Amino acid sequence: MARHAGRPGTDLRLDRRRLLGLGLAAGAAPLLGACGGASTTGSDEEGAITFLSTQFTPVEERQRFEQILRDRVKGGAVAYNTVEPNVFSSTITSQVGAGRVQVSLAGGLHGDFAPHADKFENLDDLAGKLADRRIPTDLADLGKLSGGATTYLPWMQASYVLAVNKRALQWLPSGADVQNLTYDQLLTWVGDARRANGNKPVLGLPCGPKGLYHRFFQGYLLPSFTGGQMTTFRSPAAVLAWQYMVELWAQTAPASTNYDNMQEPLQRGEVLIAWDHVARLVNAPADKPDDWIMAPAPRGPQGLGYLLVVAGLAIPKGAPDADRARQVIETLTTPDVQLEVLRRNAFFPVVEAALPTDLPPAVALEAEAVRRQQDAQGALLALPPVGLGAKDGEVSQIFKNCFKEICLDRRPVQQVLDRQAQQLNAILDEVKVPCWRPDPVVAGQTCRVQ
């Protein structure tokens, strides 16, 4: 059994069943020079190496990470440039293709690197040198994209969990454990709570224009009910999942369609229970952490589906300062720096690291929930879509369309899934990429909805 987060000496390394995605996927992440792409001149300091990244795009997150770079990286300045994934893709592609590379270090999600494995250096030697970091094997293996060679080294990770105000526990069904819920128990809980709360819903979901609710369907609901994400998209089990979602939505705060992140409505007391990315929940318990619980997502008929969002570090082929880039990777994967990123930006370590006593209480709550989620019996790891490039947004929109048509417009579930599956297959046939977990991953075989 895992030791509880928040206690000194707790091991934050996430092993085989503790792979945390840091969404981050997350979630959640143009150089108008000779090669096109994004500006790679993010520092006025002479001799700074360029670090292009899809991570920490919010201004405050970026500034906090830049301070870590200034404080921790020795031997010269690092120009940290944040871009959207499509700009990351075009920049790496154009620079490497033209043989005029300005980027020395690249940071992105697994899906940012997957389509471009041949454009990055083989880092097997650096992976061997950093073996003492004790990065879990399954997590390290995700970075081996090109013929089994290490394309990227894991950098950080995050996930999505439930935030619960303890006021809601009074309505928890008899015999239910908030740390080990089923989807049926969650539905009963929020339904009973609504009726006992003057018909006011206590559950909220991030279904606003910038909310990450599509990740709930991709990484939690569908894997938990169907065992897959794409291949099972219109299966009988997927129909049951969406029928469940209709019932859950009936017990959810209607204002959820305006919520881009759940920490603010939780802080305001508009809802008492919410699911979201850890970085979008962390402020909810900040003022009164004793009033809050963070818990794993529920489990369904196929297990406890959860989304792994893992970010990595890579060096483009032809990088102008590859040696210094390697030094930066070494620095960013030390336990001290990993914990500093956790402390400041709530992204979790990928290396073995003892939990410090001065960790913000809200982050400690999330760490425990993440650990429980990944340690759970029947935990089913899911990845955000991989290798879709510019089509990623279109695929996300298909899941959003399913929600709108099924839950808001109340259209027949199977008809909606069949129609959206046709659009999904059209995209998949165009990009011709293999499936990703939890679907079977077969190299050279195009992913399709069955």
UniProtKB/TrEMBL annotation:
Superkingdom per UniProt: Bacteria
Keywords: Cell membrane, Lipoprotein, Membrane, Palmitate, Signal
Alphabetized Pfam families for the sequence: SBP_bac_1
Annotated InterPro entries: Bact_solute-bd_prot1, SBP, TAT_signal
Stretch forming the signal peptide: none
Acetylation listed as a keyword: no
Alphabetical list of PROSITE patterns matching this protein: PROKAR_LIPOPROTEIN, TAT
Name of the molecule in the record: ABC transporter substrate-binding protein
